[in-house]
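Saturday, quiet lab. Running sequence design on the structure tokens for the scaffold JK sent over.
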């Protein structure tokens, strides 16, 4: 099983890249699943707030606060350990797992046993729909100085992003 990690800030294009990549791989007859580290805190948001886990705007402040609480409570390993457990299950059913919401260095570094491909999606846009507090949150800046990405791609048009991702697929023989 191949694991692809997609990292970036809010609204950088991580989900867009993940869906394009999934489509490319499925065209090659690969079984692909997209998952997220945040799925666990999204479940908390569903339970606490009644959020359907899809609708925009996301309850971002709640998600950031809950994620921060869970990381502190569990020494920054809760999300990584849960994902490792999930990957051990996925490996029996799929060829490729795309984790579409990487935000923290440990979420990249602690999965080395799965030999992941690490992709950063960058967006040159300075303006997001985040409040100052949300934009200042650790999850928006934890990867600012991270240098171990295999690829950094710009959020461009879907066609341009597809061409870049096709190159990554070919280079990694996916």
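Result came back. Writing it out in full:
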């Amino acid at each position: 099983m191949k694991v692809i990690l997609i990292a970036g800030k809010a609204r950088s294009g991580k989900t867009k890249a993940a869906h394009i990549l999934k489509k490319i791989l499925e065209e090659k007859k690969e079984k692909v699943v997209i998952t997220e580290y945040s799925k666990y805190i999204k479940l908390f948001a569903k339970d606490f707030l009644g959020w359907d886990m899809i609708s925009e705007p996301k309850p971002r402040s709640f998600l950031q606060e809950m994620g921060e609480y869970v990381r502190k409570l569990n020494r920054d390993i809760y999300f990584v350990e849960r994902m490792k457990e999930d990957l051990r299950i996925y490996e029996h059913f799929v060829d490729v797992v795309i984790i579409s919401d990487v935000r923290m260095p440990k979420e990249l570094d602690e999965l080395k046993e799965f030999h992941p491909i690490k992709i950063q999606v960058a967006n040159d846009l300075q303006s997001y729909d985040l409040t100052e507090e949300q934009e200042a949150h650790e999850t928006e800046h934890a990867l600012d100085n991270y240098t171990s990405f295999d690829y950094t791609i710009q959020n461009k048009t879907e066609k341009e992003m597809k061409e870049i991702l096709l190159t990554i697929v070919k280079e990694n023989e996916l």
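Notes for JK: The chain is about 45% helix and 15% strand. The mean pLDDT is 92. Ask whether to fix the surface positions before the next round.
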